[in-house]
Amino acid sequence: MEWIVLALLGLVAAILGSIMGLGGGIIIVPALMILSEYSSILNGITPQIAVGTSLLIMIFTGLSSTLAYVKQKKVDIQSGLIFFIGSGPGALFGVWLNKDINVDVFLIAFGIFIVFVSFVLMVRKHIKPLQLKAKGIQRSYVNETGQTMHYGFQPIVAVIISFFVGMFSGLFGIGGGSLMVPAMILLFAFPPHLAVATSMFLVFLSATVSSISHISLGNVDWFYALALIPGAWVGGQLGAAINRRMTSDTVVLMLRIFLIIIGVRLIYQGVTGL
């Protein structure tokens, strides 16, 4: 029964994570902690093991989703690699912080910030992106309605922002997309579908770096991982297929709802320690 539950958990988390570019860790980490209280096989899961195992699973979710989104021509690979220059070291720093930091107060503050970001997305059309100088990266993209949209960013600004995104990924095992997708949409004017797809590419790269560090620290339970990986791989493909049939506004609405859920979960975790 535990294998079935874990397989379904990996599937659902990957589908939702792939649709919104979140990676799925925000679902897997608390789910493993909750399941450990009710299962004799899954007992003894520490927060570090839950985070480490979640990040390993996100490698497969991220790779599966990225391959599907590449076929749809929605992944901005060059931009993703630039973001990774910051998120890679940030992820390693987050793993280091995860070892022994007391993060209760920080969790509450971070949760409130995530909820705030959700409400900012609601009025995103009234917010002007960061001014782009001549030497910045500039791109164009044709959305689902045939409209050509322009976006871009300053590499140094993108690297700094993605460093903090990677740090949160390594620290909490949430994949980083909960901040990276809103940042790309709000600050750099990325079209929502492109932001989600590029975020999943970044999730794959960042999770690879973070999980290697967690494996070296012994923070991965391979029993749970083997049960979660098949669902994560299939879910990544399904999520990308579902995302393709959604409008930009629907993608942003789902993202906003899940950001609120993520924020409330982090606040609850900070208050209760669970």
TrEMBL record:
Keywords: Cell membrane, Membrane, Transmembrane, Transmembrane helix. GO terms for cellular component: plasma membrane. Its main location: membrane. InterPro entries: TM_pro_TauE-like (IPR002781), TSUP/Inactive_protease-like (IPR051598). It comes from the Bacteria. The keyword Cell membrane applies. The chain crosses the membrane at residues 49-70, 77-97, 103-123, 197-216, 222-243, 250-268. PANTHER family: MEMBRANE TRANSPORTER PROTEIN MJ0441-RELATED (PTHR43701), MEMBRANE TRANSPORTER PROTEIN YJNA-RELATED (PTHR43701:SF2). Belongs to the 4-toluene sulfonate uptake permease (TSUP) (TC 2.A.102) family. This is Probable membrane transporter protein. The lineage of its organism: Bacteria, Bacillati, Bacillota, Bacilli, Bacillales.
